[in-house]
Design a protein that fits this description.
This protein has helices at about 10-15, 40-55, 115-125, 175-180, and strands at about 25, 30-35, 65, 70-75, 75-80, 85, 95-100, 105, 130-135, 140-150, 150-160, 165, 170-175. The chain contains 4 helices and 13 strands. It has a 6-stranded mixed β-sheet, sandwiched between helices. Strands 5-4-7 form a 3-stranded mixed β-sheet, with no helix packed on it. The longest helix is centred in the first third of the chain and has 18 residues, at about 40-55. It is an alpha+beta fold.
């Protein structure tokens, strides 16, 4: 009898990966590794998290999480978005966020821009995440996408000194100049 090899990794395999400072994700059972983010990336992430918390948490609309945190979308899809907004508290378990959150935010780095814009975006859309935002510290822009028929469509985009307003979040007004200072 031959040895049966796994064709896809799953969460049980993923949780055995040792902590080494890199970010590991499973996308459709394939392991992806990215380096730790830069200080600029982390500054923008921290500032945007504070703005999102002021809107979602202060009003009781949801909870904001930052990386590293596992978002388990399927047994073979475990991702770590830079920021996650969860409006259904039942998705937050002792081990992870389990299921599709309302919003994921990816902050681009030169080494991960294509991965975030293509591979992760396609998987997020296919697995039911309604809102996906892409933040570019380099161009000082934010693009807001909404899921439509398992893909994302651009809803709005904003520049460095704009106030982010979103048709699906009418009370959300984020002054983006605070992100880039």
């Amino acid at each position: 009898m031959g040895v049966q090899l796994k064709t896809k990794l799953d969460y049980d395999d993923y949780r055995l990966i040792p902590a080494d400072g890199k970010r590991y994700e499973l996308i459709d059972g394939r392991l992806h590794v990215t380096p730790a983010p830069s200080p600029l990336h982390q500054r923008v992430s921290k500032r945007l998290q504070r703005l999102l918390e002021a809107h979602f948490e202060a009003s009781g609309r949801g909870e904001v999480f930052d990386a590293p945190i596992d978002v388990i979308l399927t047994r073979n899809d475990v991702l770590q978005p830079d920021l996650v907004v969860v409006t259904n508290p039942d998705l937050v378990t002792a081990r992870a966020i389990e299921g599709a959150p309302l919003l994921v935010v990816e902050i681009l780095s030169p080494s991960t821009a294509d991965y975030d814009r293509v591979i992760k975006a396609e998987r997020y859309a296919a697995l039911g995440i309604t809102h996906y935002w892409v933040v570019s510290p380099e161009t000082r822009t934010i693009e807001c996408f909404r899921r439509h028929e398992n893909t994302y469509q651009l809803v709005a985009d904003f520049g460095a000194s704009d106030t982010l307003t979103h048709p699906d979040f009418p009370e959300l007004h984020l002054s983006l100049s605070a992100l880039w200072r």
